[in-house]
């Protein structure tokens, strides 16, 4: 780092923060899970006390230095990348569970708490935090709130924003805010809490999150069904829903994904003999009898589609093996390909078959395009794999395929993103989905929260 222009700022920060609240691992903080994107910060601050963020904002604003908030760095659209240099504000040390309240069924946490930890601690007192993004073992709740993350259980339980009751933090003028709390009902004024959820760290800095918890389901049953055709696989949810069945998860995996996993000789038990398309139906409830009845009824209904196989996955160890396979899909594809770009689009569930057909037609001899994801809410994770294209052809293909994919999503009455956000990589397509007036209103909101444009600039729009 060239310290000269930053010397006054550095001097003030060194007085306010201890030496171990800085990092010089610029390589780590210059990237996240966004492929082929790196942006180096000028300074990395990792506060141990959320109250120090007010001081950080004051100093950064004084010297007109940008701040880029960062959670666990698991995002795939560049939301945590410091595109304008400046200060990377990492929340990894703000990882305390402040309060776990069984009476109000709430948990209050700092933004650096890992999502899986929230689930584990809640379940110790028979409560349940349902949102379960694929990276739940490593992603942080602050990042989940920033992106309004979803996951397989969204079909029944909703997404992160459905569980955010309260937020505390700081505006970019240094003043603190406190929205909501432990109350279930709150309609005072505009719902600024909802505005911050999904705002991708561009409006304010969140330092405390109050989450709603629900009673923990007593039983669950995973059902894995293999179909010969993608069309019948994708129609299966509509069939069982028509008969009143409501799984807590409904996931689909393309047979190409399974074939690739086999070539990598993965340790996942059960996929060895799979040759078709997989659907995961996970049922939960308040009794073993109720859950078993749902699973058996599902198997009976699905027989009219002539599935290749149906498996009831009974033990927790077996269930974890199957879910680990699903959660590892992106990593497996990344290992297999020379390079990979991931997108997430979302379409109405009824349009999944036609959308998936069109996605498969985007593949070429050297580049494979495949999708898998959340049958329950129409959220498709589309992976573009470089099999044997050279670098120049790959870059051209990524641009062309991405444009076709996003146009496809909108033509299918969908959206550019279901849970990964717009961030850096999709912002040039925002005008495809929104009018000039829409975007103008968004920019006015941004300026109201962040008049100097110092908080995570270059994300969503310029």
Radius of gyration: 23 Å
CATH architecture of the largest domain: 2-Layer Sandwich
What is the CATH class designation of the largest domain? Answer: Alpha Beta
**How many H/I helices?**
16
Number of strands: 18
Determine the mean pLDDT: 95
Give the biggest sheet: 7 strands, antiparallel
Q: Provide the low-confidence segments as ranges.
A: none
Compute the number of structural domains. 4
Strand content: 15-25%
Report the span from N to C terminus. Answer: 25 Å
Strand order of the largest sheet: 15-12-14-13-17-18-16
Judging from the principal axes of the Cα atoms, what is the shape?
Answer: globular
Instruction: Assign a percent range to the helix content.
Output: 25-40%
CATH fold descriptor of the largest domain: Uridine Diphospho-n-acetylenolpyruvylglucosamine Reductase, domain 3
**Which structural class do you get from the secondary structure elements?**
alpha+beta
Concise overview:
The protein has 462 residues and is of the alpha+beta class. It has four domains: 87 residues, Uridine Diphospho-n-acetylenolpyruvylglucosamine Reductase, domain 2; 119 residues, 2-Layer Sandwich (Uridine Diphospho-n-acetylenolpyruvylglucosamine Reductase, domain 3); 109 residues, Alpha-Beta Plaits (2-Layer Sandwich); 75 residues, Alpha-Beta Plaits (2-Layer Sandwich), CATH 3.30.70.2740.
């Amino acid at each position: 780092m060239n310290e000269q222009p930053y010397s006054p700022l550095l001097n003030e920060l060194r007085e306010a923060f201890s030496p171990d609240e800085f990092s010089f691992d610029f390589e780590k903080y210059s990237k996240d899970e966004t492929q082929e994107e790196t942006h180096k910060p000028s300074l990395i601050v990792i506060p141990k006390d959320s109250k120090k963020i007010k001081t950080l904002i004051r100093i950064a604003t004084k010297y007109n230095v940008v701040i880029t908030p960062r959670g666990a760095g698991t995002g795939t659209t560049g939301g945590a990348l410091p595109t304008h240099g400046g200060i990377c504000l990492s929340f990894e040390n703000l990882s305390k569970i402040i309060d776990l309240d069984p009476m109000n069924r709430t948990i209050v946490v700092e933004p650096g708490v890992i999502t899986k930890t929230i689930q584990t601690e809640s379940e110790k007192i028979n409560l349940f935090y349902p949102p379960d993004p694929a990276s739940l073992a490593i992603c942080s709740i602050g990042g989940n709130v920033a992106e309004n993350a979803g996951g397989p259980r969204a079909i029944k339980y909703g997404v992160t924003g459905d569980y955010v009751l309260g937020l505390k933090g700081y505006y970019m003028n240094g003043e603190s805010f406190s929205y909501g709390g432990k109350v279930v009902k709150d309609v005072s004024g505009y719902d600024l809490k909802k505005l911050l959820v999904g705002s991708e760290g561009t409006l304010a800095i969140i330092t405390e999150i109050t989450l709603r918890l629900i009673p923990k389901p007593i039983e669950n049953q995973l059902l894995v069904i293999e179909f010969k055709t993608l069309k019948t696989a994708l129609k299966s949810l509509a069939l069982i829903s028509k008969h009143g069945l409501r799984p807590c998860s409904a996931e689909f995996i393309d047979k190409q994904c399974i074939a690739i996993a086999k070539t990598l000789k993965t340790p996942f038990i059960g996929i060895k003999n799979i040759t078709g398309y997989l659907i995961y139906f996970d049922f939960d409830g308040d009794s073993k009898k109720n859950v078993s009845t749902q699973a058996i009824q599902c198997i009976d209904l699905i027989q009219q589609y002539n599935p290749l196989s149906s498996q009831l996955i009974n033990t927790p160890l077996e269930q974890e093996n199957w879910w680990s396979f699903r959660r590892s899909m992106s990593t497996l594809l990344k290992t297999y390909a020379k390079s990979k770009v991931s997108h997430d689009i979302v379409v109405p569930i009824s349009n999944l078959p036609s959308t998936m057909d069109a996605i498969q037609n985007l593949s070429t001899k050297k580049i494979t395009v495949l999708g898998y994801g959340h049958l329950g809410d129409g959220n498709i994770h589309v992976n573009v794999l470089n099999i044997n294209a050279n670098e120049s052809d790959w870059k051209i293909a990524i641009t062309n395929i991405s444009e076709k994919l996003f146009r496809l999503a909108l033509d299918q009455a969908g959206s550019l993103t279901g849970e990964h956000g717009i961030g850096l990589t999709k912002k040039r397509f925002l005008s495809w989905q929104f009018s000039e007036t829409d975007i103008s209103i968004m920019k006015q909101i941004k300026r109201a929260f962040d008049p100097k444009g110092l908080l995570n600039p270059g994300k969503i729009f310029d």
